[in-house]
Amino acid sequence: MQRKRGAREPGQQRTLYQRARLAIMLGFGVALILLGWATYEAYRQSRTTAAGGERVDHTLRVLNTALQLETTLLSMEVEHRAFLVRGDAALAAARDTHARLALDLLRDLAVLVRDNPTQAPRIARIEALLGERRNAMNESTTLVQNAGVEAGRDNFRPQGEGSIEPIRALLGEMRVVEERLLEQRSRQAIAAAQRLRWALLYGPGAGLGAMLLGFLALLRMLHHADAMRRQLAQANALQTAMFQSAGPMLIATAPDGRITLFNRAASEKLGYRPEQMIDKLTPAVFHDADEIAERAVTLARELGTPVAPGFEVFTTLPERGTPEERVWTYVRSDASRFPVQLVVSALRDEGGTLLGFLGVAQDISERVAAERAIRDLNAALLSRTRQLEDSVRDLESFSYSVSHDLRAPLRHVDGYARMLAEDAGDALDAECRRYIREIGTSAQRMGRLIDDLLSLSRLGRTPLQRAPVDMNALVRDACRELDWHGQPDSVIEISRLPPCVGDSSLLRQVWVNLLSNAIKYSAPRGAAAQIQVDGSRNGDRVRYRVADNGVGFDMRFSDKLFGVFQRLHAQDEFEGTGVGLAIVQRVVARHGGSVDARGQPGAGAEFSFELPLEAPA
């Protein structure tokens, strides 16, 4: 039988069916593969986008924390410098509060950058520098408390090792790294969103289900992309706010010098509106032209190449990788001038292409004024020191004259008076013999006065030999050289005395003078005279007391007791030079202690002195 034209053999039909089924299965399989791939890629890219958003947010937190730390450090530095000018303890307390807050922020920053090993050495270095700065400030505070504001200012280090500037430089490096990381992560997030969009276009032949699933995935990714765009917009707004709210003046320029950023601090300090500056002017408008010209000459000499006296002055070193940092004079829009500390750095992309320059300027008017005040105070102190040295030399000359030139005539007067009394005593009447005795007594009294004056003058020049002192033994030793005025030593009752730290020879003179006064002014009591010596310890100080039941004194005149030549009793009542208590006050003051006196006429007197258990700083 003849086969019809166009008819296919069963085997051929089966082959076509198999091929179609294979094509359908292959197409369905491809559709499933494309659908699965699209679904998987959408899921993977959504996770990537979410992770990118988290990384962007993390980087923003790092930048914000670093800026807060720098602002806190600047506040700490301002409070410290104000404290060195005024010496106000409240300023030191505010400074320490900022220092503690800065340490907390540094710890937070260390936690945030644990995912970036390159930042760890900077964190460690900042922590060490912050510790050094706090130690320097505490040392200045201790000097102010113990030696006065001038000593604290002398110890002040505004720049270099121990200052805040190395910390700010490290923070600037950290911000540059994090800003680059933010830019990189933002690009990656945008690229991930773009890859997702392309992935969702594949596999349209997978059917309505694949399209629906792809559409749902697309909606999801669009939602994430919108969230990412909002985060990026927030990041840009936050970065702009950070620049605008920063305490220093931030001025960025294009490579040709045109200003591209002019923050609020710069606007307020210089008196120009940002719209007057951005893309219109260069920093030359608020710089001193003479300073620029002078710096151009200096740079040309240092680098051995010509430097034009213009914008090139600020960019020559940054273009070579070294920030330009120095003090400049800014000129406000009203022509007034003020000093600034300016740091200019180059801005480059990841490929090293120069994008522009950033200048960070800090108004240092207060610092300059403080340094000027310190210089003036140092000059005044130097003048006072020279005057004091002259006075000391005069006092030494006077002491030598007293010791040698006055003692000899007095010895002659006293000696000749005794010789006259011995040789011609029988030939003289009673009145003449009384005159001779008065001559000898007056010469001896003047000799004692000279001795006391020399002792007083030596107090300020003799260095203290501090050592532990057994006050009980020292008082017993002092009692052995006292003039008891005919009284038994039983009139003194000595309680157990706590030890102290000081110069035993000078403290022995204190006891001799106080006990001598107690014996002398209680002598009119006769056998009823009583003298009590006791002591007690109160915290880091020890107090000693000498009390008697003698003639006492009127408290209205207590301010005269410790003055030189100040006496509350006539010479014919009680002998004395009026120097003993002045010596007591000087010795105790040199030990960092204080003296007190209380009395009542006819009811006795009480003298006490306090000493620190440790030598004052």
Structural notes for this entry:
- The structure is a single chain.
- The chain has helices at residues 10-86, 89-112, 120-147, 149-154, 165-199, 208-245, 264-270, 274-277, 289-303, 312-319, 365-424, 430-459, 471-479, 504-522, 580-590; strands at residues 249-253, 259-262, 324-331, 337-348, 354-363, 467-469, 492-494, 500-502, 531-538, 541-548, 594-599, 605-612.
- The protein is built from 15 helices and 12 strands.
- The chain has a 5-stranded antiparallel β-sheet, sandwiched between helices.
- Helix 2 packs antiparallel against helix 3 (120-147), helix 13 (471-479) packs across helix 14 (504-522) and helix 14 (504-522) runs antiparallel to helix 15 (580-590).
- A hairpin with a 5-residue loop joins strand 3 and strand 4.
- Helix content is 60%, strand content 13%.
- It is elongated and about 145 Å long.
- The chain has 4 domains: 11-243; 249-363, Beta-Lactamase; 376-461, Helix Hairpins (Orthogonal Bundle), CATH 1.10.287; 464-617, Histidine kinase-like ATPase, C-terminal domain (Heat Shock Protein 90).
- With 617 residues, the chain is an alpha+beta fold.
- Mean pLDDT is 76; it is low at 1-18 and 565-574.
